[in-house]
């Protein structure tokens, strides 16, 4: 799936800032985040919608998160904090 264009990423700046603040999470390129050098969260665009795919706990695949509303943003950030902390404890 294609990554969101720059204009779409600009609309997601508050979300991106929150993801950048999570301990252990690094932004490899706009909209692509890693933990310990491994893919963690990737933002994607599909049919006019923006989605995030986040590595599942245990590392077997990815969970998909819609990003159309602020509550959806909060869910992604909350889950990312939990999963990043769990990876940091490993």
Please characterize this protein's 3D structure.
By secondary structure, the chain is an alpha+beta fold. It has one domain. Helix content is 38%, strand content 33%. The chain has three helices and five strands, in the order H-H-E-E-E-E-E-H. The chain has helices at 6-11, 13-20, 70-89, and strands at 25-29, 32-35, 38-46, 49-55, 62-66. The chain has a five-stranded antiparallel beta sheet, with helices on one face. The mean pLDDT is 91.
Ranges with pLDDT <50 over ≥5 residues? none
By secondary-structure content and strand pairing, the structural class works out as: alpha+beta
Percent range for β-strand residues: 25-35%
**What is the overall shape?**
globular
Radius of gyration over C-alpha positions, nearest whole angstrom: 12 Å
- Helix percent reads 25-40%
Task: Tally the structural domains.
Answer: 1
End-to-end distance: 30 Å
Major β-sheet annotation: 5 strands, antiparallel
In order across it, which strands form the biggest sheet?
1-2-3-4-5
Count of helical stretches: 3
What order do the helices and strands follow? HHEEEEEH
Mean pLDDT across all residues, rounded? 91
Q: What is the strand tally?
A: 5
């Amino acid at each position: 799936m294609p990554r969101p264009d720059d204009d779409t990423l600009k609309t997601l700046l508050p979300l991106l800032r929150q993801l950048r603040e999570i301990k252990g999470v690094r932004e490899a390129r706009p909209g692509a985040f890693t933990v310990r050098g491994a893919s963690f969260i990737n933002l994607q665009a599909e049919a006019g919608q923006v989605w995030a795919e986040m590595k599942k706990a245990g590392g077997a695949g990815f969970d998909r998160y819609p990003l159309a509303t602020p509550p959806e943003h909060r869910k992604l950030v909350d889950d990312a904090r939990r999963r990043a902390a769990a990876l940091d404890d490993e």
